[in-house]
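for the recovery benchmark. tokens below, seq after
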């Protein structure tokens, strides 16, 4: 921008009526300042009758991975850590409390030959115990978030030669005061495992409670699957998910949900890859494995991070259905994480992996009389889950990936030609690795290419036109993982600040404008626990009791809840708005509601006068909803105490005619929605 123009903008903004965000000038007599401002105004022509692309229902979705305590300790509402004693250290998360020291009171036993999935249990010898002389304490996932008045459901699997031991269950706060209690008399005797439950209400709210189990009586008892769930799970399902976290997803109205990751699919080594068949069926038979983020980053080591699979593929499909999102499972393609062991299954031994993929389609869609359809029905869902797409491999690369993908593609397309396959273009959006994969995948005519970009905010601004020249007739694009990474702070955290959100918002105008090529997009990672994260930034943050969306969340939500049905041109001087004068824009119409929706990003530090000229329609309404996301500094973030420091603010503006004047705030995303007549 030349200095003359800069000067003018300064003068004009100084003359602007302070604190008035939007001004509707159409049809008014102009003052001198308004005339000057009019001259510099960016006029964006919205060609509302010239749709260029249909927007896929999948366009804006979510990427879920068990990273940052996303599943265990996150959306999976189980409060007991290491409930089945299967962590590498069997008593991790537990403490044995006894007033009189006695060896061997609590021992860990292994019944591998009888239960390969969940072999360990504990044996407690109770020798005339009472008055809190022998107990077990579970610390929860960085404590247990307990809410006053809420019901908590305790359950345990046990066996004992004879009845005679009573369990006193207590929740205690950080001062060791009891904030909820119950007792249980396991009544059955014999060799069989039984489950018993008891429920009680909490008397106080506590972010980091612990659970004590005191033993009273005499005898020996074996215990396993010691569990505590809150009553207020998503849809009140017993043993279900944390409702506040799922609600945040539902609020986005996501077009799809990708699961279970991420690198978690690949595993550090093949042994610890994600295997969906091991995540379904009764939870006590689901085999726990280490979470690969456990030791991935030395600076954020999380040695107590495991995958219990209380949340498995059935639950993911159910979740997708609940929130109206198309399920997108990603499967291992016979390759472990190439940043770690890079183990490969020989290409001629891929059969079990391919079979897992075929069986998964049957599990999701098959008739109840098929082998896997029957399993789904037995788990409580006879109706199909309507699976339409599946990912083969996460961030895999090189000829070894292409070789394996070919095997999957052939087998899946032969049996299920309608299933769309999502394929990997590696770890980044450019360079030799990307170019090779992109070339090979296009030669294979794959359905969808998954591109990932974790880059600085500047990259997102510079790449808003990335897809403008992509092949319109080739493979579709899934912008599968993206996040603008601001600088690291002292504690190794890259913050979800306004700067990153605005850069993403600018980039998303480019995805939307190119919706004929880009069919899906998701930010990554999705969730992080403030006390248990390994990777930042992340879309939504939680502690044991609270949740807040980041500015980036609100950007995603503004796009996904203003998706529209068709893209229409938004042009400044006949060109797409891709960064001229720090402005970015895209527009859609919604043929169902007959709205035009325009998204405009101002990534500069000064206000910008713009005019939206809606063309190709007879009339538009005389008012529009204008929603703005901004802040007073690029460093602005949201926190649990101030969850909407950067959040969308809506207002209605009135105008005459088909021209809408909008003054864009510095560093802002503005969404204008107007009804067409
Ligand atoms: O989103 C975090 C990680 O980033 C994902 O697991 C992986 O696919 C990517 O490297």
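predicted aa per position
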């Amino acid at each position: 921008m030349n200095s003359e123009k800069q000067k003018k903008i300064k003068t004009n903004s100084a003359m602007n009526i302070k604190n008035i965000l939007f001004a509707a000038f159409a049809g008014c007599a102009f003052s001198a300042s308004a005339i000057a401002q009019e001259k510099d105004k960016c006029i964006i022509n919205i060609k509302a009758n010239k749709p260029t692309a249909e927007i896929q229902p999948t366009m804006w979705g979510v990427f879920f991975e068990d990273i940052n305590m996303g599943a265990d300790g996150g959306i999976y509402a189980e409060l007991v850590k290491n409930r089945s004693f299967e962590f590498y250290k069997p008593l991790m998360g537990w403490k044995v409390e006894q007033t009189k020291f006695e060896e061997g009171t609590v021992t860990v036993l292994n019944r591998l030959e009888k239960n390969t999935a969940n072999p360990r249990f504990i044996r407690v010898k109770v020798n005339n115990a009472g008055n809190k002389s022998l107990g077990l304490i579970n610390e929860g996932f960085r404590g247990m978030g307990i809410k006053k008045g809420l019901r908590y459901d305790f359950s345990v699997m046990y066996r004992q030669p004879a009845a005679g031991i009573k369990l006193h269950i207590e929740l205690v706060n950080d001062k060791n005061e009891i904030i909820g209690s119950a007792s249980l008399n396991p009544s059955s005797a014999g060799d069989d495992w039984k489950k018993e439950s008891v429920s009680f209400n909490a008397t106080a709210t506590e972010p980091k409670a612990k659970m004590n189990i005191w033993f009273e009586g005499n005898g020996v008892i074996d215990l396993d699957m010691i569990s505590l769930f809150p009553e207020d799970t998503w849809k009140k399902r017993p043993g279900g998910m944390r409702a506040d976290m799922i609600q945040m997803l539902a609020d986005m109205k996501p077009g799809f949900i990708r699961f279970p990751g991420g690198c978690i699919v690949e595993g550090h080594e093949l042994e610890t890859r994600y295997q969906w068949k091991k995540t379904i069926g009764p939870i006590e038979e689901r085999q726990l494995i280490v979470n690969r983020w456990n030791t991935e980053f030395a600076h954020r080591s999380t040695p107590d991070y495991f995958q219990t699979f209380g949340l498995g593929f059935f639950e993911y499909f159910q979740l997708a259905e609940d929130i109206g999102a198309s399920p997108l499972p990603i499967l291992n393609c016979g390759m472990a994480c190439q940043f770690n062991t890079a183990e490969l299954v020989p290409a001629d031994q891929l059969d079990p992996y391919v079979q897992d993929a075929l069986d998964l389609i049957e599990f999701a869609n098959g008739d109840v009389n098929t082998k896997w359809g029957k399993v789904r029905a037995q788990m409580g869902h006879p109706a199909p889950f309507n699976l339409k797409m599946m990912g083969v491999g996460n961030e895999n690369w090189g000829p070894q990936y292409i070789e394996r993908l070919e095997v999957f593609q052939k087998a899946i397309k032969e049996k299920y030609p309608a299933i769309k396959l999502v394929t990997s273009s590696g770890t980044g959006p450019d360079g030799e690795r990307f170019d090779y994969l992109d070339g090979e995948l296009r030669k294979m005519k794959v359905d969808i290419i998954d591109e990932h970009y974790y880059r600085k905010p500047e990259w997102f601004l510079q790449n808003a036109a990335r897809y403008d020249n992509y092949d319109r007739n080739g493979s579709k694009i899934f912008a599968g993982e993206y996040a603008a990474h601001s600088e690291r702070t002292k504690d190794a955290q890259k913050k979800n600040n306004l700067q990153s959100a605005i850069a993403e918002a600018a980039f998303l105008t480019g995805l939307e404008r190119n919706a004929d090529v880009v069919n899906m997009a998701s930010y990554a990672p999705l969730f992080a626990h403030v006390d248990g994260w390994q990777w930042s930034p992340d879309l939504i943050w939680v502690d044991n009791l609270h949740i807040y969306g980041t500015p980036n969340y609100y950007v995603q939500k503004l796009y996904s809840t203003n998706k529209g049905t068709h893209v229409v041109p938004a042009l400044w001087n006949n060109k797409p708005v891709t960064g001229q004068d720090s402005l970015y824009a895209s527009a859609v119409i919604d043929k169902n509601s007959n709205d035009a929706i325009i998204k405009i990003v101002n990534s500069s530090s000064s206000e910008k006068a713009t005019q939206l000229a809606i063309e190709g329609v007879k009339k538009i309404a005389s008012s529009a909803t204008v929603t703005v996301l901004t802040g007073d500094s690029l460093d602005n973030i949201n926190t649990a105490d101030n969850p909407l420091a950067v959040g969308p603010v809506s207002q209605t503006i009135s105008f005459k005619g088909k021209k809408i004047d909008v003054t864009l705030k510095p560093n802002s995303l503005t969404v204008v929605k107007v009804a067409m007549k």
